[in-house]
Amino acid sequence: MRVEQTLGVIGASEGCSRNRYYRAFKPNLSRIQSFSYDYPIYAFPALPKYLCCFSPHYDARRNDNAPLLDVQPVKPVVNTVAPADTTHAYALLEQKQFAAAAKEAKDLAANHPNDPEAWKIAGFAELNLKQYAAASNDLEKAVELQRGTKQQDPNTESALGQAYVLSEKFEQALPLLVAATTRSGSQPDALMLYYRGIAEYRTGKPADAERSFNAVVKLNPKDSLSLFYLGQIALARNDLDGAIAALNRATVNDGRLAAGWMLLTSAYLRRAAASTDTAKADADYLNAVRSGEGLIKVRTDAEAVTLLGQALIGSKQYPRAAAVLDRASTAADATGVTFYLLGVAHSRATNFPKAIIALETAAKKSPDDVNVYRELGYAYEVTKQYAKALAVYQKGATLAPGDSDFKESIERVKPFAK
């Protein structure tokens, strides 16, 4: 019994009801896990009591019921010729009883190691169980046997490519996925194109990956993950306009795509900082706030909240930025950047005592960040703590000896420092 029918048809012939392929599924690529498989240990049936007690040294004349032969259990002979009867294993797979299907198929494969169908059922069941490493191993055997008998099954090869991607074997996956998406006479499947794009991206071929993801989006304009990768590729080459366009589409199609919101907020901040047009920069900072608000709906860790705080500072919403960053600073994973931005927000809101507290903490967490000493020195100077301001400016000048701002600040406060 063949296994292609279980999850639907992808590029299969209607005339061949068994030559079908499981509908693949798109996992969360952020946490791929692999599982190992333990081959079953066969237990033999218990022997009758009298056989268990018999010994060749036993005197049969003393027991008229004793057997005349010392019978020992025989190890099953592996059948390397006849195919296995996979009907029941396939039925389990069709009923989505994947664990049972995998176990039964593995048992069949152990007794019929040259039957590709048993390995194939096991591989597809393990794929559904997210046991990607085991699925790769079993589908490898199925493909090898199919090729050995010149009965290649494109659907099994496509599934193996998928299993390779999900177990992070991108180099091995790529040729299978290229073949799956370039077969003559059939339109490429969007999901196989997506996996191909992932394999190309992870093997250092961003231009090829971009073509694949664009092909996916052409087939499915709402494919948020392909749009996300297009945004990421655009950001890597500093195409901020292209990145923002792709990431906006990605987050509109999937409002819970935290990584998309993160990159979109960062892209707006980068474009605002690089802009020479004040009006456009202000608009980008406001858009960064909007996307940052979308981010913290799905992520509330210090990194996400800090990014929103940075956007609020850029849009000159200092009291709100201070409130947001103050909350982020209480998190266990708060970094020196969080405290630095909190200090900047308080400073711009003219709350210098709180700015000093935050910036002193930032200096402890990020002792080599010259920006911290610039802000902290300014806060000390404004509050007329000139000796502290001088020491901080001198520390900054040590870290950045070519920075003229530190030199000017040192000369400015030195007469007042005691």
How many helices? The count is 20
Ends apart, CA distance between termini: 91 Å
Question: Order of SSEs, N→C?
Answer: HHHHHHHHHHHHHHHHHHHH
Q: Are there runs of 5+ residues with pLDDT below 50, and where?
A: 1-64, 66-79
Strand elements, count = 0
> Helical residue percent?
55-70%
- Determine the strand fraction and express it as a percent band: under 5%
User: What is the CATH superfamily classification of the domain at 1-52 and 79-168?
Assistant: Tetratricopeptide repeat domain
User: What is the CATH third-level topology name of the domain at 1-52 and 79-168?
Assistant: Serine Threonine Protein Phosphatase 5, Tetratricopeptide repeat
What is the makeup of the main sheet?
Answer: none
What would you say the CATH architecture of the domain at 1-52 and 79-168 is? Alpha Horseshoe
Quick check: average pLDDT? 84
The first-level CATH class of the domain at 1-52 and 79-168 is given as: Mainly Alpha
Shape: elongated
Quickly give the structural class.
Answer: mainly alpha
What Rg, in angstroms, do the CA atoms define? 33 Å
Keywords:
0% strand; single chain; disordered N terminus; mainly alpha; 418 residues; Serine Threonine Protein Phosphatase 5, Tetratricopeptide repeat
Question: What's the short story on this structure?
Answer:
The protein is mostly helical and 418 residues long.
Please explain how this structure is put together.
- Helix 6 (154-166) packs antiparallel against helix 7, helix 9 (206-219) runs antiparallel to helix 10 and helix 14 runs antiparallel to helix 15 (318-329).
- The radius of gyration is 33 Å and the shape is elongated.
- The model is unreliable at 1-64 and 66-79 (pLDDT under 50).
- It has 418 residues and is mainly alpha-helical.
- It contains 20 helices and no strands.
- The protein has a domain at 1-52 and 79-168: Tetratricopeptide repeat domain (Serine Threonine Protein Phosphatase 5, Tetratricopeptide repeat), CATH 1.25.40.
- The chain starts with 48 loop residues before the first helix and ends in a 5-residue tail after the last helix.
